[in-house]
Design brief:
This protein is an alpha+beta fold. The protein is 43% helix and 18% strand. It contains seven helices and five strands, in the order H-E-H-E-H-H-E-E-E-H-H-H.
């Protein structure tokens, strides 16, 4: 097949005529290393490895939840004054983050870019799904049957725990924490 009739040659010629700039090789390839669904992670990791090898650049593996936790800092670093007016929105360390991402949930205390303490987590289940499953196991069958149809089980658990509403429960935090 003559060169000018090959589809890839046509595409390259079209790009050249459009004035598109030639793309530079990236400085590195970044990929999610986990947590997450293994099959999805494997596809991403294999693709990233191939690209890093082909471009002869470093491969940077990123913890999925750490990336989510640091996103507010990235957004504020990339923001212009017009985005937020005069308000200061940069999260300062330490800060708490509640990450709810698909099949897992984490409550983190972040003290630096690389120091995060997991205060609570679910390993392979979303928080709402966990509450629903716990409610089905904990609540008496008669209580569940008496609820209106389509009442979420997590909501039913709250109604069972606080029959008069959450306002009848008082929590006083200790003056010191260990």
């Amino acid at each position: 097949m003559p060169e000018e009739n090959r589809p890839d040659a046509y595409a390259i010629d079209s790009l050249a005529k459009s004035g598109a700039k030639r793309l530079k090789r990236p400085d590195f390839v970044s990929v999610t290393r986990g947590p997450g669904m293994r099959s999805n992670l494997a596809v991403g990791l294999d693709t990233a490895k191939g690209l890093a090898l082909a471009w002869d650049v470093p491969l940077l593996a990123v913890h999925h939840m750490q990336a989510h936790a640091l996103t507010p800092r990235l957004v504020s670093a990339l923001a212009t004054k017009d985005d937020f007016g005069d308000a200061t929105v940069t999260p300062a360390f330490p800060f708490l983050t509640l990450l709810v991402s698909g099949g897992h949930t984490m409550l983190l205390s972040s003290t630096s870019l690389v120091e995060h303490k997991i205060l609570a987590e679910t390993n392979d289940i979303a928080l709402g799904d966990c509450l629903d499953k716990a409610a089905r196991a904990i609540l008496p069958l008669g209580f569940l049957e008496a609820l209106p149809a389509n009442t979420p089980f997590g909501c039913a658990l709250e109604l069972f725990a606080f029959p008069g509403g959450a306002s009848d429960y008082e929590y006083n935090a200790p003056s010191t924490r260990s």
